């Protein structure tokens, strides 16, 4: 049986839309876990909260529809009773914040990417209109993928109200294994669909998920390339987050980053040192500015932030 919310969704979104309005600088305040990312909102910005609550969860269809002010932890707690999960990272923030930032979970190889999991998004535009993109079903939908464009936009193109996400079953077994290794890419050659592969230059951590028998088979394969032992979980992550080409993650050095933990196959590195700022390609900047101008001509949505 799915989870249902008593309060009508239309009214929740209408109330939120009224708060956003059609004039004046405005931004949504969530869990503030990534509040300093890519600038700070301007001093005269009006802060509002997105509506919260789970509208429906359909494990048989592997979808959940949720209001974006809902904490990720609350969403996952409710889905757990149905044996389901989403790919959203649980770092103390809200569903809308996770979408706005667009940073994937540590186990992205197993859970999938946020952008791919968004089936439908309802948001309030800069002129105070309710916009819907996508469809609340797991199938190919023709038309513009505005909902995917919105992921990672930091609320500069629209303010999120409701989202329908793909879910997937919680695996019966989820375990971490580690061994000394200077060649983390070897794991891909031997293990079938690891949920995560992490590497700090000397040690490799591998997360395996699935049914007991499947995990045991993959562990035996791991043991052919290293003395892997089960551990409680992933290593602690340094404070700075780098984004690089996935092919470069296994070539990173401490001279560049200080202590680091690289997500192999993903292109994300957590490091002691911040990543140096790279000049944005003029073509990319032109496209970004054009999108901002089209979606928010007056610059009222999250002023002070840039993508």
Q: What is the fold's blueprint, element by element?
A:
Blueprint: H1 9-20, E1 26-28, E2 46-48, E3 52-58, E4 63-68, H2 72-80, E5 84-85, H3 95-101, H4 108-111, H5 114-117, E6 118-124, E7 130-134, H6 146-150, E8 159-166, E9 168-169, E10 173-180, H7 186-190, E11 196-199, E12 203-210, H8 212-222, E13 229-231, E14 240-243, H9 254-257, E15 260-263, E16 268-271, H10 282-295
Parallel strand pairs: 1-2
Antiparallel strand pairs: 3-4, 4-8, 5-9, 6-7, 6-8, 10-12, 10-13, 11-12, 11-15, 14-16, 15-16
Structural write-up:
The protein has helices at 9-20, 72-80, 95-101, 108-111, 114-117, 146-150, 186-190, 212-222, 254-257, 282-295, and strands at 26-28, 46-48, 52-58, 63-68, 84-85, 118-124, 130-134, 159-166, 168-169, 173-180, 196-199, 203-210, 229-231, 240-243, 260-263, 268-271. Mean pLDDT is 91; it is low at 1-7. The protein has a seven-stranded antiparallel β-sheet with strand order 13-10-12-11-15-16-14. Strands 3-4-8-6-7 form a five-stranded antiparallel β-sheet. It is of the alpha+beta class and 307 residues long. 24% of the residues lie in helices and 25% in strands. The relative contact order is 0.15. It has two domains: 9-169, 2-Layer Sandwich (Uridine Diphospho-n-acetylenolpyruvylglucosamine Reductase, domain 3); 173-271. Strand 3 and strand 4 (63-68) form a beta hairpin.
Please outline what is shown here.
This protein has helices at 9-20, 72-80, 95-101, 108-111, 114-117, 146-150, 186-190, 212-222, 254-257, 282-295; strands at residues 26-28, 46-48, 52-58, 63-68, 84-85, 118-124, 130-134, 159-166, 168-169, 173-180, 196-199, 203-210, 229-231, 240-243, 260-263, 268-271. With 307 residues, the protein is α+β, with helices and mostly antiparallel strands. It is 24% helix and 25% strand.
């Amino acid at each position: 049986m799915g989870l249902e919310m008593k309060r009508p969704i239309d009214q929740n979104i209408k109330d939120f839309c009224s708060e956003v309005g059609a004039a004046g600088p405005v931004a949504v305040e969530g869990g503030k876990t990534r509040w300093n990312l890519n600038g700070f909102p301007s001093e005269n910005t009006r802060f509002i909260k997105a509506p919260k609550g789970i509208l429906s969860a359909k494990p048989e269809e592997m979808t959940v529809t949720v209001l974006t002010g809902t904490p990720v932890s609350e969403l996952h707690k409710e889905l757990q009773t149905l044996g389901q999960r989403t790919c959203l990272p649980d770092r103390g923030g809200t569903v809308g914040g996770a979408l706005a930032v667009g940073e994937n979970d540590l186990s992205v190889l197993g859970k999938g990417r946020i952008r791919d999991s968004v089936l439908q998004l309802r948001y309030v535009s800069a002129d105070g209109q309710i916009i819907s993109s996508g469809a609340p079903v797991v199938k190919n939908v023709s038309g513009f993928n505005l909902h995917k464009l919105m992921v990672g936009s930091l609320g500069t193109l629209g303010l999120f109200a409701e989202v329908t996400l793909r879910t997937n079953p919680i695996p019966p077994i989820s375990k971490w294994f580690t061994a000394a290794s200077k060649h983390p890419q070897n794991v891909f050659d031997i293990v079938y669909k690891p949920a995560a592969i992490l590497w700090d230059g000397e040690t490799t951590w591998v997360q395996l998920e699935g049914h007991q028998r499947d995990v045991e088979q993959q562990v035996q394969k791991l043991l052919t390339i290293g003395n892997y032992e089960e551990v409680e979980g992933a290593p602690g992550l340094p404070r700075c987050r780098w984004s690089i080409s996935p092919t470069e993650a296994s070539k990173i050095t401490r001279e560049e980053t200080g202590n680091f933990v690289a997500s192999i196959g993903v292109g994300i590195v957590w490091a002691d040192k911040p990543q140096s700022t790279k000049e944005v390609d003029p073509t990319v900047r032109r496209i970004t500015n054009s999108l901002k101008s089209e979606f928010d001509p007056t610059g009222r949505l999250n002023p002070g932030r840039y993508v």
